[in-house]
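INFO batch 0412 | record 1 of 1 | parsing
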Amino acid sequence: MISLAKIEIMRKRRRGGSVIKQIQKQSETRINFKNDNEESGDELTEEARSRIRTMVIRAKDKLTFAHLLVLMSILDYDEDGNVDHSTIIPMVDGGTEAFKGNATVIIPGVTACIECTLDLYPPQVNYPMCTLASTPRLPEHCVEFAKLLQWPEEKPFGDIAVDGDNPQHVQWIYEEAFKRSEDYNIKGVTYRLTQGVIKHIIPAVASTNAVVAAACALEVFKLATNCSKPLNNYMVFNDSDGLYTYTFEAEKKEDCSACGRIPQRLTFSRDDTLQNLLDHLVESPLFQMKAPGITTSINGKNKTLYMQSVPSIEAVTRPNLQKKLTELGITDGHEIAVADSTSPKPIVFRIYFE
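INFO prediction complete | emitting tokens
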């Protein structure tokens, strides 16, 4: 019998992450297995050592942080394309927003990953500048106006970016937003709302956090001990009006940019420019990239079409944005590689023309 099993858990933690704190309270990192005839001790037997599992528990507010996990990049495959199970590190993911929550178990290379279901998540809300400047209707509009337009223009603290954890910064934005709300007769601008808009804080309810944290802790226990089959693979929870839960199997995409092994397919017109391609990668709910850099191979030579992350290269490649894809040497079925902070490795796309 196993006297003691220790579970090694890799945690990606965020300061103030309420869900991960609940998980830590409800899931112990030490589990005892003993019978009545055996004394517990700190020494691990060989059998116990073989049961040590590594897994990732994730509870992030910002979805893009999930792309930083390199679980997919450490997988090994055999000659037939089957994943080597010894290289798999499971991930348990959970999140809440007010009275809604979800929990999911991801087995990299086997089940659907976060990228497979990325289009189920809405992109971050961004308010049009024309609305902020001319026709504000919500208290959030007033806060965003003070943050995005007044702050860089007036520079109340010099050439310093807004810091949501600095009370002086938050107070200044709150006061300016409150003045603007009075001018447009908008109610609801408070210090708490101001801080929430600046830091993109998602409202949380303790009871919802507890339920989702308990679900995640249970899945961690099942993965660590093999006492039961893990969740397959997505659970949603809603207690805004009564109690509702539903479990379903999210399908794995064969052409997923993270866990798939074939190039992504993109279709454009022959008149589309590189700027159209760039806008599609940023605005599409399938990708939601931040600052993609695009490279390709033309006539056997590597060519950088556009790169935002390096200022000197960005200045040189900026004229390419207004050129048609065909002018840049891209033909039907041409492959391009796109690097972005939202993905741990470059993503290969294949361009087709209508």
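INFO post-check: The CA atoms of residues 3 and 38 lie 7 Å apart.
INFO record closed
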